Amino acid sequence: MSKILTFFLTASLIIVFFAAPVSAKKKRILVFSKTAGFHHSSIKAGVAAIQKLGLTNKFEVDTTIDAKKFTPQNLKKYAAIIFLNTTGDVLNDEQQTAFEKYIKSGGGYVGVHAATDTEFDWPWYGKLAGAWFVNHPKVQVATLNVVNRNTISTKHLPENWIKKDEWYNFKDINKDIKVLITIDENSYQGGKNAPQHPMSWYHDFDGGRSFVTAMGHVEESYSDPLFLQHLLGGIQYAMGIKKME
Predict the structure, then answer these.
(1) CA angle 137, 234, 245 (to 5 degrees)
(2) Whether 144 contacts 160, CB under 8 Å
């Protein structure tokens, strides 16, 4: 009888030993912050903030400025890729192809601020991101209108959110994006996208998921609980672990 009991106890321990790592395995994201143009000083604060979001929300965060990480095999590891204040031409043709395949296979993309100031010669990326950066006025306080408060990225926000940042003007805005937040051009100087000037949006695109917030220029954003919860909702949607609405 004791031998039988010992056998079952041993078998149970073996099952737990091998099953636990699988059940406890966390999803992983990649924060990509390579710059081939303007380099934002807030990138360091942004990386640290996203790492903290990962710790408190049970997902792993890898970070890189190395475009060589964009291979089909490596990208398979990630539930979402965050372009954190990337600028200019950051991926070569082969790396672009790998990223396209990743999205088409159900991957997620998060674009933060200058992600729309990236890869202007890559039309597919422009459609994924949802718009191209044109220019911006000086950093200043403005009023944001949260036009959709029924999402995991916006339900915590006030209807009118007063915030300081660098407010982008856009071109080639993808008509299929679902706008979450717009900016009131009467509340600051330099806006050029009236009557509807988007500042955050999302859309399912080409088999994957895309979330963009045009905020994130100033370092203060990465210690602002409202902005961080907004960003977290977008990350969770892009990862495919929560529905946006």
Answers:
(1) 120
(2) yes
Note the pLDDT of residue 26. 87
- Count of positions (residues) in the chain: 245
Question: What is the distance between the alpha carbons of residues 2 and 26, in angstroms, rounded to a whole number?
Answer: 38
The pLDDT of residue 3: 52
Pairing verdict, β 160-165 and 108-112: unpaired
pLDDT at position 186 is 98
Whether the upstream peptide bond of residue 195 has omega within 30° of 0, thus cis, is yes
Degrees, nearest 5: CA angle 84-217-146: 95
On average, the pLDDT of the chain sits at: 92
For residues 219 and 46, give the distance between their C-alpha atoms in angstroms, rounded to a whole number: 8
What interhelical angle do 43-57 and 225-239 show, nearest 10? 70
Largest CA distance in the chain: 83
pLDDT reported for residue 15: 41
User: 61 pLDDT exceeds 60?
Assistant: yes
